[in-house]
From TrEMBL:
<keyword id="KW-0021">Allosteric enzyme</keyword>
<dbReference type="GO" id="GO:0030170">
    <property type="term" value="F:pyridoxal phosphate binding"/>
</dbReference>
<keyword id="KW-0663">Pyridoxal phosphate</keyword>
<dbReference type="InterPro" id="IPR011833">
    <property type="entry name" value="Glycg_phsphrylas"/>
</dbReference>
<comment type="similarity">
    <text>Belongs to the glycogen phosphorylase family.</text>
</comment>
<dbReference type="GO" id="GO:0008184">
    <property type="term" value="F:glycogen phosphorylase activity"/>
</dbReference>
<dbReference type="InterPro" id="IPR000811">
    <property type="entry name" value="Glyco_trans_35"/>
</dbReference>
<keyword id="KW-0328">Glycosyltransferase</keyword>
<keyword id="KW-0808">Transferase</keyword>
<keyword id="KW-0963">Cytoplasm</keyword>
<comment type="function">
    <text>Allosteric enzyme that catalyzes the rate-limiting step in glycogen catabolism, the phosphorolytic cleavage of glycogen to produce glucose-1-phosphate, and plays a central role in maintaining cellular and organismal glucose homeostasis.</text>
</comment>
<keyword id="KW-0119">Carbohydrate metabolism</keyword>
<protein>
    <recommendedName>
        <fullName>Alpha-1,4 glucan phosphorylase</fullName>
        <ecNumber>2.4.1.1</ecNumber>
    </recommendedName>
</protein>
<dbReference type="GO" id="GO:0005737">
    <property type="term" value="C:cytoplasm"/>
</dbReference>
<feature type="modified residue" description="N6-(pyridoxal phosphate)lysine">
    <location>
        <position position="693"/>
    </location>
</feature>
<dbReference type="GO" id="GO:0005980">
    <property type="term" value="P:glycogen catabolic process"/>
</dbReference>
<dbReference type="Pfam" id="PF00343">
    <property type="entry name" value="Phosphorylase"/>
</dbReference>
Length: 844
């Protein structure tokens, strides 16, 4: 506001202010200008990538207008805002999505069949196809898997629903690594993605100094008040980079602010420099920049590295500084902070924000402890995504003491007051105190971040019903006893139908729009239920089926281009794409494939005629240090090369490993599946979200009673899903039994193991650990217990696929019943029951 141009002088500005493209000429002019001047390329030197950059730059110039207006509007109305703190935002590509959201790209196969779009047509005039141009964009892959992608879907829904909301994250120089498969092994290639990224706006004027290390000095000020002063240590600068997030069909364009680390200006050590030690002066500088250099590539696994804790504090402190600065401008009383600010913690990664806010309020703003703590707990909400013990964050106390000495003191105080209140409630229960203490009395002592997050938040939620129930009955049971059930709730995940239906599957979106009379379902997904009326409509069914075929052809082409293997698109496409993890059980999948292979090999020519041809498609990255997951990838690739080259099998079975699975590949894969696999050991998958994407695109699923599979079943009906396997409630007893002689290897699985051990898929030693984990070490993930149920259910899938008519009916009915799984519903639930925020809708 202070830097605004005074009213009498605004005329010139208004005259030249940019507006949306209304003709292709306007677009072409800007496109050529950007290619020639911004990119310094020419008519003779303009490839698809230059065309992409030019289009992105021309288009983003337009996007910025609504973005600026939204920010101005939100500042002026000054109503409550949401801040979504996430260490991961798995955005994928931006151009296509942004064009669709602001209505500058109608699908080439629109309801009326006409293409009048200025971007598409403008590019055509210069000899480019918009699809090719779009596919030049590098994925923004600042996340590992479901948790990061959920954050990206949330941003889309928050903007679409006009919530005043900001995302806060880290601007990693390297996103999730690129995966190459060499000789069947995963090899990781760094993902340096920032060159020429047109979607970020550096805000060099917005910087925050972040302190680390040092000591705490305690003294009494003139009034006799005890003061804690955090002194010395080192300072690193956080620089803001902003990314516009356009909503679909709305004027709201929200902001994602990513922090980048830089040596603070005072940091460069001129003494060293002058003493000739230039190298060491630069090394210090580089050390500061390391903080935001790389995304930790683990999904559902925490390793307690100091740099990771540094990242967490750096990002939390910078974000809170920003939020507090914005609040202070309004000159309100501190007690109003929770009426203006809601902060959501995406897992425990941002838990330091709780401690940092308490520190700001008591040490800097001078509030009393209780008053401050009351503000803090009203402000924060915490989402838990997993019950897996290896994913629960704990930080060693000595490490904390060294890096953030004042914060550790505050944590001890939070713990003290908390334990006092517990003691009051349960006076004769010593055990509960040690169970719920934030500090685990181990060697070394550890800070339990999930407990801190619960204690510092007013709401804690899980991400699917079963998951939230398990939290309440196991992991967080004591806290339910302490706080009562109201602090704990469920918000079942969703996905944004804009990216995962409209953008990934434009043909299906257009067909649905034709039947329902428009694209309103994209912002009210429950309208899909109207599709059920057309289940028996012959023409509609034919179009539906044809779209699936086209999408399978597109994937088959992609597979041939990337792997060299040819697959028959009339085969049943069976897909499992997600991070590779023992709990997600890609090993169960590949053992099932081997079983199928052995079965086919043993068949007569007559028997083979009855087999439903199948393509098993598996994709996903393994954390670089997760050896067992890498072994699973290796086995899949070995099976692939043996099976695909076996002439006894031919088209009856093909096995494909998709390299470097990411968001943009998911957009090609999801619309092309007949069946997809969501087969985690019951009770281990928080929710799963790709299950939703596949069903939304007309694929059926095979799955366990786990995560959101259960609610998907409830919505679409039991007859439209293939469920198998043991239930969550039986898992503990089965596991326990395995260690007391109750383990019998499933006979079909035994055959599979024999084949592997005999060298059918190369050196058997390579796979020994995988087999032993089941045969000898307790089969923690119940692969053997579920194997028979898994393969017989796959036989049912084959039978069902033969009845194409019924299959089609299942596909249509399922899509019609998926309305619940939009992130719009999810965001409205968070807004109502956790954030207490209202949308800010603009009138034209
Ligand atoms: C994932 C969960 O594993 C997955 O089940 C869930 O759908 C997703 O988060 C979004 O809620 N890291 N990734 C997850 O949890 C953690 C921790």
């Amino acid at each position: 506001v202070e830097a605004s141009i005074p009213e009498p002088l605004r005329e010139a500005w208004r005259k030249h202010s940019a507006s949306e493209f209304t003709t292709k000429d306007e677009f072409e002019k800007e496109l050529v200008r950007h290619i020639e001047t911004t990119l310094a390329r020419s008519l003779y030197n303009c490839d698809e990538h230059a065309a992409y950059s030019g289009t992105a730059l021309a288009f983003r110039d337009r996007l910025i207008i609504e973005w600026n207006r939204t920010q101005q509007r939100q500042t002026l109305t000054d109503q409550k805002r949401v801040y979504y703190l996430s260490l991961e935002f798995l955005m994928g590509r931006a151009l296509d999505n942004a064009m669709l959201n602001v209505g500058q790209k109608e699908s080439a196969r629109d309801i009326n069949g006409v293409v009048t779009n200025c971007l598409t047509e403008g590019l055509k005039d210069l000899g480019f196809r918009i699809e090719d141009v779009i596919s030049q964009e590098h994925d923004a892959a600042l996340g590992n898997g479901g948790l990061g992608r959920l954050a990206a879907c949330f941003l889309d829904s928050m903007a679409t629903l006009n919530y005043p909301a900001w995302g806060y994250g880290l601007r990693y120089r390297y996103g999730i690594f690129k995966q190459e498969i060499i000789d069947g092994y995963q090899v990781e290639i760094p993902d340096y993605w920032l060159d020429n990224n047109p979607w970020e706006f550096p805000r060099h004027e917005i910087t925050v100094d972040i302190q680390f290390y040092g000591t705490v000095r305690k003294y009494q000020d003139e009034s006799g008040k005890l003061v804690h002063s955090w002194e010395d240590g080192e300072i690193v600068q956080a620089v803001a980079y902003d990314v516009p997030i356009p909503g679909y069909g709305t004027k709201t364009t929200n902001n994602l602010r990513l922090w980048s680390s830089k040596a603070s200006s005072g940091e460069f050590d001129f003494q060293k420099f002058n003493a000739g030690d230039y190298e060491s002066a630069v090394a210090d500088q580089q050390r500061a920049e390391t903080i935001s250099a790389v995304l930790y590539p683990n999904d559902n696994l925490e390793r307690g590295k100091e740099l990771r804790l540094k990242q967490q504090y750096f990002w939390c402190a910078a974000s809170l500084h920003d939020i507090v600065r914005r609040f202070k401008k309004s000159k309100r009383a501190w007690s109003e902070f929770p009426d203006q600010v809601a902060i959501q913690l995406n897992d425990t990664h941002p838990t330091m924000a709780i401690v940092e806010l308490q520190r700001i309020l008591i040490d800097i703003e001078g509030l009393e402890w209780d008053e401050a703590w009351n503000i803090v707990t009203k402000t924060f909400g915490y989402t838990n995504h997993t019950v897996l013990p290896e994913a629960l964050e704990k930080w060693s106390v000595p490490l904390f003491q060294n890096l953030l000495p004042r914060h550790l003191q505050i944590i001890y105080d939070i713990n003290l007051y908390f334990l006092q209140s517990v003691e009051k409630k349960f006076p004769n229960d010593r055990e509960i105190l040690s169970r719920v203490s934030i500090i685990e009395e181990s060697h070394p002592k550890m800070v339990r971040m999930a407990y801190l997050a619960i204690i510092g938040s007013h709401k804690v939620n899980g991400v699917a019903e079963l998951h939230s129930d398990l939290l309440k009955s196991t992991l967080f049971k004591d806290f339910v006893d302490i706080y009562g059930p109201d602090r704990f709730m469920n918000v079942t995940n969703g996905v944004t139908p804009r990216r995962w239906l409209h953008q990934a599957n434009p043909e299906l979106s257009a067909l649905i729009a034709k039947k329902l009379g428009g694209h309103e379902f994209l912002t009210d997904l429950t309208l899909l239920d109207k599709l059920e009326a057309f289940v028996d409509d012959k023409e509609f069914r034919a179009e539906w089926s044809n779209i699936k075929t086209q999408n399978k052809l597109r994937l088959a082409k992609f597979i041939q281009e990337t792997t060299g293997f040819k697959v028959n698109p009339t085969s049943l496409f069976d897909v499992q794409v997600k991070r590779i993890h023992e709990y997600k059980r890609q090993q169960l999948n590949i053992f099932g494939v081997i079983h199928r292979y052995l079965t086919i090999k043993a068949m007569s020519a007559e028997e083979k005629k009855k087999v439903v041809p199948r393509v098993s498609i598996i994709g996903g990255k393994a954390a670089p240090g997760y050896w067992m997951a890498k072994t699973i990838i290796h086995l899949i690739n070995k099976v692939s090369s043996v099976v695909n080259n076996d002439s006894d099998v031919g088209d009856l079975l093909k096995v494909i490993f998709i390299q470097d699975y990411n968001v943009s590949k998911a957009e090609i894969i999801c619309p092309a599946s007949d069946i997809s696999e969501h087969i985690s050991t019951a009770g281990t998958e928080g929710s799963g979200t790709s299950n939703m994407k596949f069903v939304m695109n007309g694929g059926l699923i095979i799955g366990t009673c786990d995560g959101a599979n259960i609610e998907i079943t409830r919505e679409i009906g039991e007859s439209n899903i293939f469920l198998f396997g043991n239930l969550a409630e039986d898992v503990e007893e089965l596991r326990h039994g395995h260690f007391y002689g109750k383990f019998e290897l499933d006979p079909h699985l035994q055959k599979v193991f024999e084949a592997i051990k005999s060298g059918t898929f190369g050196d058997a030693n390579e796979f020994q650990a995988l087999i032993s984990s089941i045969e000898e070490h307790g089969d923690y993930y119940l692969v053997s217990d579920d194997f028979n149920s898994y393969i017989t259910t796959h036989e049912m899938v084959d039978e069902a696929f033969k009845q194409q008519d019924e299959w089609l009916a299942k596909s249509i009915t399922s899509v019609a019943r998926m309305g619940f799984f939009s992130t719009d519903r999810v965001i409205n639930e968070y807004a109502d029951s956790i954030w207490n925020v209202e949308p800010l809708v603009v009138k034209d």
